[in-house]
Each structure stands twice: as C-alpha cells, then as structure tokens.
Design goal:
The protein has two domains: 3-51; 58-263. Helices cover 20% and strands 51% of the residues. It is built from three helices and 14 strands.
C-alpha cells in the first residue's frame, strides 16, 4: 500500500471515529476534529522523521527516437533538482536517471515524437512530506544532439541546470516557482525562441559567443542584470547589433516576480 493512501485512510478513520463518539456520548465532534487531525499529522511527521526510508528509488529510462525527424519533450518535474544536457546515443531521443521515479508517455504527430515525463503520483505525496522537503526529485536527462527539439519545463521549488549548448533547440518554455535556474542556450541551432516565467527565482542565462540575442525582460521586484556591452538597449529590448542578420540567434522573453535575472 502506498504511504499516501495509508495516511489519508487513517485521516478518514479518525474523523469517522470522532463523529461516532460524538453521536454516542453527546460530544461536540467539531471541537475534536481539528485537534485530532493535528495529532494525526504530527504522528505522521514523527513516523517519517524516524522510520521513513532515507533513500529514494532510482529509475532509468531510455526513449528511442523511433525514426522521428524532430522531438518534443514536456517535463512536469515538481520540486527537486533537474540536470539536462546532451549525451543521448544515436537512435535515442532521451536517456535519464530519475531519483524518486518517473512516469512517461509518448505520442507521434507526423514526423515529431513527443515525450511527456512527470513525477509518479504516489511519490509526489511522499516527497511532499515534511521529512523529504530537502530532497525532492533529482532528475538527470541526456537528449539527442542531432534532432531538432522543442522543450517545455514545468517545475516547482528547486534547482535546474539546463545546458542546451550542443542541442538543436528551436523552442523553449520554462515555467517555475521558487527556484534557481542556470540556462545555457544553443550555440548552433539557427533561430531559437525561449520564454521563461518564474516566481520567486534566480535566473541566469548564458548566450554562447557568436550567437546574437534579442532580450525582453519584465518583473515586479526582479533585479535585472543584462550584459549591455553585448546586448545594447534598444527601446524596450536589449539586442545584439547584428541580430537581424545573424545565422544563430535567440529571442528571449523573461518574466519574473521577485528575484534576479542575469543574461551574459
């Protein structure tokens, strides 16, 4: 039985028992429900701190490209650490190791193979437990550096180190909460469009030498540090002088709430 199901089963039993006692002995069940749930939650936390397993399962996954001409990768990561870069062998779209596990699905749309990766629902409950807040899910992914790719990442609190330098990523979307993200953009992918939306976050973006960029950054209380020597301000954007004619270029849209944005 999954620990999440066990916990919620105990909650239902406890609430039912409180109301049963209330009916039998004329006790105001509502006055006991809140304290009872707090006691049960405290016992769950103590169990986790003393008896819960200290190590998480590690799952390996390889998804073949299946003859596709391009790939689309959608990641629903949750909280934890994400590392993403090149390194998949010929004929492979994505290879990875997933601390805490992963579920995946694939879908073929014409010449494009889409891969969806997400945290398992049972482990999501376990890793959301107080004794596991410091750990989260640790994913390491290696992608094909020969196929044109589009990436979409949705994550919560955690760290992300995304190295696209040697990948052919044409479209990138990142949506994250309280996080620290280091992003290295493609060096030889032609035209790349990147959109980053972050809450309370630190976002550091590195544009390879020889790649032009057009940058539009907005944020409520975000500290913006853009390399103006490489990307002079032009109206509401920061843009390389040769952006329009560059063979390799990136269009960057960054929106943050509170935190910092750096583009180098």
């Amino acid at each position: 039985m999954q620990r999440g199901s066990l916990f919620w089963g105990l909650v239902l039993i406890a609430v039912g028992a409180v109301f049963l006692l209330g009916n039998l002995f004329g006790i105001d069940a509502w006055k006991l429900t809140g304290p009872g749930l707090l006691i049960l939650f405290g016992l769950w936390v103590l169990w986790g701190a003393t008896l819960a397993p200290r190590s998480a399962p590690v799952q390996s996954l390889t998804v073949a490209s299946e003859g596709a001409a391009r790939g689309r990768l959608v990641l629903h990561h949750g909280a934890g650490v994400l590392r993403l870069g090149p390194g998949a062998a010929p004929g492979e779209l994505v290879v990875g190791e997933f601390v805490g596990g992963v579920t995946h699905s694939t879908r073929r749309e014409g010449d494009t193979l889409q891969v969806d990766l997400r945290v398992p629902t049972g482990n999501l409950f376990l890793f959301g437990a107080p004794w596991a807040w410091h750990r989260g899910f640790e994913w390491t992914l290696r992608l094909s550096n020969t196929l044109p790719l589009s990436l979409r990442l949705e994550s919560g609190a955690g760290e992300a180190n995304i190295d696209l330098t040697d990948l052919k990523v044409a479209d990138l979307q990142i949506s994250t909460g309280a996080s620290s993200t280091i992003l290295r953009l493609p060096a030889n992918a032609g035209s790349t469009r990147a959109r980053i939306e972050a809450g309370v976050a630190s976002v550091r973006i590195f544009v390879p030498e020889g790649v032009a960029a057009s940058i539009h950054a907005t944020g409520g209380l975000a500290d913006q540090r853009i390399d103006r020597a490489r990307f002079p301000r032009t109206g509401a954007r920061y843009q390389s002088p040769d952006y329009e004619t560059a063979a390799n270029k990136v269009e960057i849209h960054v929106q943050t709430g509170v935190g910092s944005v750096e583009v180098h």
